[in-house]
Amino acid sequence: MTHAATRAEALHLTGERTVPGIPEENYWFRRHEAAYLALLPHCAGATVLEAGCGEGYGAGLIATKAKRVLALDHDVPTTEHVRRRYPDVAVARANLVHLPLAAGSVDVVANFQVIEHLWDQAGFLAECFRVLRPGGKLLVTTPNRLTFTPDSDTPLNPFHTRELAPSELDGLLRAAGFAVETLHGLHHAESLRELEQRHGGSIIDAQLAVVMGSLPGQAVWPADLLADVAAIRAGDFSIGADDVNASLDLLVVAVRP
Questions:
Q1: Exposed (0-12), middle (13-18) or buried (19+): which is 142, by Cβ within 10 Å?
Q2: What number is the average pLDDT over the span 97-104?
Q3: Is pLDDT larger for residue 103 or for residue 6?
Q4: Looking at the 3D structure of the chain, how many domains does it have?
Q5: Taking a C-beta distance cutoff of 8 angstroms, is the pair 140, 93 a contact?
Q6: Of 91, 146, 149, 113, which is closest to residue 16 (Cα–Cα)?
Q7: What CATH number is given to the structural domain containing 168?
Q8: Domain of 71?
Q9: Is this prediction's pTM over 0.85?
């Protein structure tokens, strides 16, 4: 598919939500994809609720392994797009602090890059606890506050309400009654660190310099930077328990006792 065709059927870019198939968005898409791939084994054969599905690519990926996937989002154009583009995913509009499911009805709740957007994080986690069966798993990914907004408890990102450090996320989950099975961090792998040296040491800063220095929709990307961003793959990120406080994103598997 051509880039023009991909753009034509892509969900509208908000400045926060990433979508597949857009070269300029590829770093963020692959970073999110790496987290989905790492947590995908927990969804095998399961009934999965994705709470806050965004464009739907993650729900579509989960559907390749899960028994059934229900994707929820509060935005009507988003749910309509997911319904059209991902036919293996059931989709509905919902408020995430009032999940429209019966107690104990799902095996897994997936919440990827969403909890930082919610005003009532504790209320959302209580709902996740309610709809999970005993032994069910909650999968959460979120930006690490210690690297995303290190000098402030107030997010600089206008789309975020509260960002979480590893200890804060751990405490929030335990307060909701969950047992935290794993808390890992996502980092740039060696291949991506090597690429960064061609762009002043930070591929993130290089991209932000282009976007923030341009009017919306009018960014002019240097050809070498765009080519390198477009070539990034999920394998260019590493995920594990080492140095979680310095990670870019947090990945948690929590269990409902």
A1: buried
A2: 96
A3: 103
A4: 1
A5: no
A6: 113
A7: 3.40.50.150
A8: 3-255
A9: yes
pLDDT band, very low/low/confident/very high, at 150 (cuts 50, 70, 90): confident
> What tokens were used for 113?
């890059």
What's the rounded Cα separation, in Å, for the pair 184 and 141?
9
212/219 Cα distance (integer angstroms): 8
Pair of tokens at residue 6: 């991909």
- Tokens matching residue 181: 């099975």
- Are 61 and 88 contacting, i.e. CB atoms less than 8 angstroms apart? no
SS3 per residue for the chain: CCHHHHHHHCCCCCCCCCCCCCHHHHHHHHHHHHHHHHHHHHHCCCEEEEECCCCCHHHHHHHCCCCEEEEEECCHHHHHHHHHHCCCCEEEECCCCCCCCCCCCEEEEEEECCHHHCCCHHHHHHHHHHHEEEEEEEEEEEEEHHHHCCCCCCCCCCCCCCCECHHHHHHHHHHCCCEEEEEEEEEECHHHHHHHHHHCCCHHHHHHHHHHCCCCCCCCCCHHHHHHHHCCCHHHEEEECCCHHHCCEEEEEEECC
Handedness of CA 163, 168, 169, 175 (dihedral sign): negative
Distance, in Å, from the CA atom of 175 to the CA atom of 210, rounded to the nearest integer, reads: 41
Using DSSP bridges, classify how beta strands 106-112 and 47-51 pair: parallel, antiparallel or unpaired.
Answer: parallel
The pLDDT of 78-97, averaged and rounded, is 95
Compute the distance between CA of residue 44 and CA of residue 62 in angstroms, rounded to an integer.
Answer: 8
The reported pLDDT for the residue numbered 192 is 97
